[in-house]
Design a protein that fits this description.
This protein is mostly beta strands and 89 residues long. The chain contains one helix and seven strands. The strands form two sheets. The chain has a four-stranded mixed β-sheet, covered by helices on one side. Strands 1-2-3 form a three-stranded antiparallel β-sheet. The termini are far apart. 16% of the residues are buried.
Length: 89
């Protein structure tokens, strides 16, 4: 499972085929928090790789993915206009 960002969507891909996508315009903010009630598309049990996308719409607003480079993924979202909440040090 891989996770990509293009000009309009965050895409979840399996063997190169998009199985789920979330519009960038529907993402209220993104962070690395751990939450229980979410839509999960994860390929790792490592909590450090979790990225939560909090959507503006939907009955389950949190969407969790596990990109290989979570901070790089968050920076890419930020460059596309999504509010990113970085963990406090």
């Amino acid at each position: 499972m891989t996770f990509t960002i293009d000009d309009a969507y965050v895409r979840v891909k399996v063997y190169g085929l998009t199985i789920r996508k979330v519009a960038l315009s529907d993402i209220a903010w993104a962070d690395q928090a751990v939450v229980r009630w979410t839509e999960h598309y994860t390929n790792s049990m490592n909590r450090r790789r979790l990225v939560r996308l909090h959507r503006k719409t939907g009955s389950v607003p949190d969407f969790v993915i596990t990109p290989k480079d979570p901070l790089g993924f968050l920076k890419s979202l930020e460059l596309r206009g999504v509010e990113v909440r970085y963990p406090e040090v």
